[in-house]
Amino acid sequence: MRKLDKKPNILVIGDLMIDHYLWGTCDRISPEAPVQVVNVKKESSVLGGAGNVINNLFALGANVDVISVVGDDLVANELKDLFDNINVSRNGLIVEKNRKTSKKSRLIASQQQVLRYDMESIDDISSQSCDEILGKLKKDIKKYDSIILSDYGKGVLTSSLTKEIIKLANENKVKVLADPKGKDYSKYKGAYTLTPNKKEAIEATNIDIKDDFSLELAIKQLKEIYNLEVSLITLGENGIAVFDEELRIKPTVAREVYDVTGAGDTVIASIAFAIANDLDIDESIHFANLAAGVVVGKIGSAIASLDEIFEYESSLHQSTSLNRIKSLEEIEILSKKIHAKGKKIVFTNGCFDILHAGHVKYLEVARSYGDILILGLNADISVKKLKGSTRPINSQDDRAYILASLESVDYVVIFEDETPYELIKKIQPNILVKGGDYEGKDVVGSDIADELRLVSFVDGQSTTKIIQRIQNAKTNN
């Protein structure tokens, strides 16, 4: 997958709420009624609803704005504080008197949800609030790469307002992606795409989706009736179906599923982010499947960062070699995150001018010592200092790309210094690996790594000998 370097401006409009959790234990039944008595140990609150979409976009690195309606209450103040925590402006929040800001409280006893209770208003917002939303949108519409409509059926995205938003966006060539609610999708007509799940698509089309034929009928119907540029249906563990000119099913890439909470929010946020980074729809869905794969491997409404997604893709051996080549700044940040997860980093370095079987076997052994192998690659300028003016044979970019394609190598970083000492200081590896010819010698960086291991080279295998054989062959000819 291509690098996603752009920080797009994405607007989220929809129903905001707070997901509130009370965590505790239960050791007895109440004498007053046949109910559990939960001893609450702690409580936590996170952004929910459209807020979870915002959290996902923020984690991906997008510039996020929000427009929504909240009540004049304490829950709204709590929600605003949560936005402050992720540096998302609350200027787009419109306060409507006598409205209850949505808050969903869950009582969890020994990791099991015992009870959920909601406090909220679900009536349509007032016409005045609708006008204010449109006013804010008209003022800033040209700055957005895309708009996400996160509809939880709590009254913000009224039928007339949704139609006006899509009309205004289309006039300004801004793509609208909508996570729909209900059975009637007419208010979303003209959007770039919708992201219903299979159950929602069945209800909206009255087509029982049970095979590829019925799936194509349903997804094509959604595209034609609601004038979508691209039609999508999420299929849970079976991936995502897409239809523009033809049906494709993009398989999921989840290894372990612990909790699917919020996966739909992750999908729509990821697709919007990828499209704004100029990926086509197939590439964007692949990216979204990877993000969802990260999220369902966590507990609760979770998010996925770009680093987590690329690391996950690499672990599935689906990433392109280019994504495994990191700058000095990127590898320093990435190494800190890997250490924070308790994973063991192995580091080695070298010129690797002409890759041969000895190199590959050496790297396979090095990788076996830990969880992540980071390879420091001597830049062309340092190779010349070490090997002479006729080297390297292959440029640093070519060498890095080939090394990054190896299954044993997780990341490659190019360094220009004569030694990798400063790079090792940035990475702080658990294990430093060098060739067996360093036996009894001082190894640069051994004072930083927790452990030094020496790996014997394969007899008769070296770049120098390969070059000599080539030169001899030319002479003999």
TrEMBL record:
Domain of life: Bacteria
Pathway it works in: Nucleotide-sugar biosynthesis; ADP-L-glycero-beta-D-manno-heptose biosynthesis; ADP-L-glycero-beta-D-manno-heptose from D-glycero-beta-D-manno-heptose 7-phosphate: step 1/4; Nucleotide-sugar biosynthesis; ADP-L-glycero-beta-D-manno-heptose biosynthesis; ADP-L-glycero-beta-D-manno-heptose from D-glycero-beta-D-manno-heptose 7-phosphate: step 3/4
Binding-site residues for ATP, renumbered to this chain: 197-200
CDD domains named among the record's database cross-references: RfaE_like (cd01172)
EC number(s) from the headed UniProt entry: 2.7.1.167, 2.7.7.70
Residues annotated as domain Carbohydrate kinase PfkB: 9-303
Active site per the UniProt annotation: 265
Region feature Cytidylyltransferase, mapped onto this chain: 347-477
Gene Ontology CC annotations of this record: cytosol
InterPro entries hit by this protein: Bifunc_HldE (IPR023030), Cyt_trans-like (IPR004821), PfkB_dom (IPR011611), RfaE_dom_I (IPR011913), RfaE_dom_II (IPR011914), Ribokinase-like (IPR029056), Rossmann-like_a/b/a_fold (IPR014729)
Region Ribokinase, annotated ranges: 1-319
Entry keywords, A to Z: ATP-binding, Carbohydrate metabolism, Kinase, Multifunctional enzyme, Nucleotide-binding, Nucleotidyltransferase, Transferase
A single GO molecular function term of this UniProt record: ATP binding
Catalytic activity: D-glycero-beta-D-manno-heptose 7-phosphate + ATP = D-glycero-beta-D-manno-heptose 1,7-bisphosphate + ADP + H(+); D-glycero-beta-D-manno-heptose 1-phosphate + ATP + H(+) = ADP-D-glycero-beta-D-manno-heptose + diphosphate
A GO BP annotation: ADP-L-glycero-beta-D-manno-heptose biosynthetic process
Any Pfam family hit: CTP_transf_like
Domain Cytidyltransferase-like: 347-461
Homology family: In the N-terminal section; belongs to the carbohydrate kinase PfkB family. In the C-terminal section; belongs to the cytidylyltransferase family.
General function of this protein: Catalyzes the ADP transfer from ATP to D-glycero-beta-D-manno-heptose 1-phosphate, yielding ADP-D-glycero-beta-D-manno-heptose.
Subunit note: Homodimer.
Name of the featured protein: Bifunctional protein HldE
